[in-house]
Amino acid sequence: MTDGSWAGGAFGERGQCVLAPNPNFMTLDGTNSWVLREPGARRSVVIDPGPSDPGHLAALAEAAGGRGNVAAVLLTHHHADHSEAARGFAEAVGCGVRALDPAYRLGSEGLGDGDVVEADGLEVHVVATPGHTADSLSFLLPAERAVLTGDTVLGRGTTVVAHPDGQLGAYLDSLDRLHALAEREEAAAVWPGHGPVIGDALAALTYYRDHRQARLAQVEAALEHLEDEQLDAEALPRRVVEHVYADVDPVLWGAAELSVRAQLAYLRGR
Q: Which of 81, 115, 135, 151 is catalytic?
């Protein structure tokens, strides 16, 4: 769940992570809610307010400057551990919620690839990174050479491709896109949605790409091994999980099965 070593805090000159108290095997230490503000500026931008925990939201509002000082709330994706409190928090501080999915917006402004959100000199560039979910976005902070990845890249471990909403092909493309940002040194650090900040974005993204390809190879090998069992479409993913993830705590097998279903769909479509 958590090793207790990550507690959020200030990063660079523009970032502050307020850690939500919702740790579990999926959220690691909890959800990272991010406050971004240009040095000396009044207004901030908040990314992923997280769960509706009163203590967390009070701490987040204080870090963000309180009512009238938040330019916008941005969402990396719709999962409740990131978005549950978004509407209530935005109403409390007097701003809108911007998201790719219209169902999660408050106000008329959405978010899309290539958009630039500005607040008192701060620039946040929107990068479409679907795969974990269809609506997943990352946010590039050029002044810090940091990319906020939500659940696309975690601070520890690897992420789930949440099939059927999440798609492996899209996820691999998103990793390539983030890797290219790191190669061009536009993104030197990863500020994730869960777990600690990663100081070497290029190494992390190279690992993520290699890990996904290795898992695909393991799934293909498992399919050959299981061929004689003549499993139906419902039974096959769990048997693949048991084969490929035998060394993983079974409490994680449900999440692993989502990724396996995404891998099987990807292999069928190749």
A: 81
pLDDT tens for 10-25 read: 999 999 999 999 999 9
Q: Can you give 101-116 as a three-state secondary structure string?
A: CHHHCECCCCCCCCCE
Q: pTM value?
A: 0.95
Quote the strand ranges of the chain, DSSP E: 9-11, 15-19, 32-36, 44-47, 70-74, 97-98, 116-119, 122-128, 137-141, 146-148, 189-191
- Catalytic (active site) residue 135: no
What architecture is the 9-201 domain classified under in CATH? 4-Layer Sandwich (3.60)
Asked whether the predicted pLDDT for residue 1 surpasses 50, the reply is no
Query: What Å distances lie between residue 169 and 45, 131, 166, 213, CA to CA?
Result: 31, 7, 9, 11
Pairing relationship of beta strands 146-148 and 137-141 according to DSSP bridges: antiparallel
Q: Which residue has the tokens 């993520």?
A: 208
User: Where in the chain are the domains?
Assistant: 9-201
